[in-house]
Amino acid sequence: MPRYRTTQPEHRPNDRGRSPNRRWLLNAAGILMMVLGLALAIVPNALAAIVVPNGTMNLYFQTTGPLAELDSGDYTTNDPVSVTGGSSRDPAGFGDNSPHRLFLIIPCVPNVQYTVELFDPAIDPGVTPDEMRDDQFNNTTDPQWFDRTMFRLLAPNGSVLQETVFDRGTSNDAWTLFATISVGANPQPGQTCGNYVVEARTGAIDPYEIGLYNDDNAWELRLNGVGFEAELGPDGQPGTGDEAAVGLGNLSYHVIDDNLCADLYWVVEQGSQNLVMQNFDFVDREVDGIGLICYFPPGVQGDCTNGYPGPPVILGTVSGSGSWNDTPDFASQSVGRPTFDQMQKFDPTQGDFTGDAIANPAPGVWRAQLCPGTDSQFSFHVNAVLFTQPPQLPQAVPQLVVTKDDGVDVVTSPGQTTYTITITNIGQGDAAILPGNAPEIVDILPAGMTFVSCQVNAPLIGTCSETSPGRVEYQITGYQGFPAPIFLPGAGSGANTATVTLTAAIDPGLADGTQLEDVVTVEYSDPSGRTFSPVSDNDIDIVVAQGVTPTVTPDPTQVQPTAVPGDPGGGPAAPASAPVAGQPALAKFVSPEVAAIGETVTWTIRVTNPADTPTGSVTVTDTIPPAVELVRVSSSRGTPAVSGSSFSVNLGEIQPGEEVVITAETVAQQILPPAQSCNQAFAGSMASNEACVTILPAELPAFGGGAPPTPAAPLRILWQWVLGGGLLMVAGLGLMRWSARLPEA
């Protein structure tokens, strides 16, 4: 009997007209299933993106042109030039004149790709709260006043990968592909993986055309993993170290709904000394004068929607129009960014749970709840990277220890010794090489020792050399049998120890009892690009002079000097004229050479006299670069005089062979694309070598831990989507074929 009938019996009138309807429904269902299947097969990651701010937040990013007034709420982008003739709303001398920045945290996983999209990157009236102003700073809908916007993507090494200028009407209220990031088959930390930077500017810098370059552009960003969910990584599992993330830098925000609050998160590392929360232009006291900010320490729940809930929640200080939150009094707030010492302190020992500056904060994930209470734009900055969702704390992190030993306590002058530097990873997570070209191991030889040779021992892979007198650098590129970024595998691998060696000569002529201290420092990161505090060790040897001092037989042809009163040794007569003063030699070093925001950066100046005669009076001067803040200066001789970022030390005379060490302790403070800040020290006309530090964004939290997944993982996830889409398409086609075989009415 046939499965389908081609005719209907005449005695079933009630069935007339049903087959066409059924066929229409089956066709429609089939077409829908095929469309869904095709969508799954072609765009598997459409719903798997990281979106900031996400759809549940009450915020947009809003980037303001440099010539807008400060009370627009964007201190970062404002140019410190008064465009209103000295108005208190835009005074000269304030504003960072810097772009907004986001950080794309891209793990070092081979053969993966990401796309970066922007929502409404152009200035246009629409859903997003773009604000256009004319030459009188009045809102306008006249397109002639609309500013252009520019977005840049910087690689972890600071090079520009993409730069796009958006004119009006090009991307209004729509997602637009901005850039593609490809990690490649051989991930290079600090080059193809690590911390990418997205910069946003509205308008331009020059020329200053009053009336332009003052618009506000509201926008969002979306990071997609191609073939996988970016938040889970290619292996589809959380906490395995292959997850991407998006961090927030110095941005300004626009609140959409007056009745809602917004949450932002950050990580405080163990041992962090100072936590600073700054807000700018949070409320307009002339309009409503209300607003609320609450800080939630790690593990503290609740919210401030209905008012401050009390301890242990910390009540933040709210800033007024065009000012920072440096005091609880609106009238005394200023337009200058406050320092830690200027801000109101949280002090739980006194029962004080109000403030925005916290010494020795508890480590973990912190949360700020921001409730402006009005349709406003404001800035909120923390000395850490912000996130729109609670970041994952590291589950497995590396922890390196280092020992240095030459096997002896006494060396001879002259002589030679060989140090063995042993590095061990006692943590469970893999240690990775540093971003960029920073050396993982740096050894500093003391005065009285001269470099001979160095070696990187298997299974470590790398090179070493003396880069400046007494400074030996080891550039590690990998560990045999492990992916290229790995410096030292975790403790569970059974391959968590490695060595390097260094041979040095002990100079002749050193006095008995001279102490020689050789110091080694090791720095490292993890596969997610997170850097850790350096570890160091030293080895101290005592000098014993070798051999017998030779006896000089007088030459009878020469007239011997006559003893003079006060010279019991009968030494040579004083020269007819005073000797020419020796010239000092200056050498400058910086540690670490790559630093995150808030990290201590130490500058060391070594002043020596290589001549045979004393120097004249020596005064060393130095001006610290603006990327770091000077904290303290110390010297083995003399008293430092400090003025702002500059200091000087009067050392007096330096004897032949003598060394004076000056140390300047600084803190990295500016959020910059990875770029070097260099400087020199001076002693009169004598200059030291340049010492350079690269300032990276603040330390970024790790996202999981463990070894990176295999390159096959993205394909596995992709094929799961493709297979599911294919099955839907086949089912849809089957329904359509079935409907075609139904009998006619």
Summarize the structure.
With 745 residues, this protein is mostly beta strands.
Helices and strands in order:
Layout: H1 18-42, E1 50-52, E2 59-64, E3 100-106, E4 113-119, E5 149-154, E6 160-166, E7 175-182, E8 194-202, E9 216-225, E10 245-248, E11 252-255, E12 262-268, E13 274-280, E14 292-296, E15 314-315, E16 357-359, E17 364-371, E18 377-382, E19 400-405, E20 410-413, E21 415-425, E22 431-432, E23 441-444, E24 449-456, E25 460-468, E26 471-479, E27 486-488, E28 497-506, E29 515-522, E30 535-545, E31 585-591, E32 594-596, E33 600-608, E34 618-623, E35 628-635, E36 641-643, E37 646-652, E38 659-668, E39 675-679, E40 681-683, E41 686-687, E42 691-696, H2 713-740
Parallel strand pairs: 20-30, 32-42
Antiparallel strand pairs: 1-9, 2-9, 2-11, 3-8, 3-10, 4-7, 4-9, 5-6, 5-8, 11-18, 12-17, 13-16, 13-18, 14-15, 14-17, 19-21, 21-28, 22-27, 23-26, 23-29, 24-28, 25-26, 29-30, 31-33, 33-38, 34-37, 34-40, 35-38, 36-37, 39-42, 40-41
Oligomer: single chain
Shape: globular
Share in helix: under 10%
Please work out how many helical segments DSSP would assign: 2
Largest sheet: 9 strands, antiparallel
Distance between the termini: 21 Å
Radius of gyration: 34 Å
In round numbers, the mean pLDDT is 78
Beta-strand percentage range = 35-45%
What does this structure look like?
By secondary structure, the chain is mainly β. The protein folds into four domains: 45-256, no CATH class; 258-393, Jelly Rolls (Sandwich); 397-546, Immunoglobulin-like (Sandwich); 581-705, Sandwich (Immunoglobulin-like), CATH 2.60.40.1530. The chain has two helices and 42 strands. Strands 1, 2, 4, 7, 9, 11, 13, 16 and 18 form a nine-stranded antiparallel beta sheet that branches. It has a six-stranded mixed beta sheet with strand order 20-30-29-23-26-25, with no helix packed on it. A five-stranded antiparallel beta sheet has the order 6-5-8-3-10, with no helix packed on it. Helix 1 packs antiparallel against helix 2. Residues 1-18, 40-47, 548-580 and 698-722 have low confidence and may be disordered.
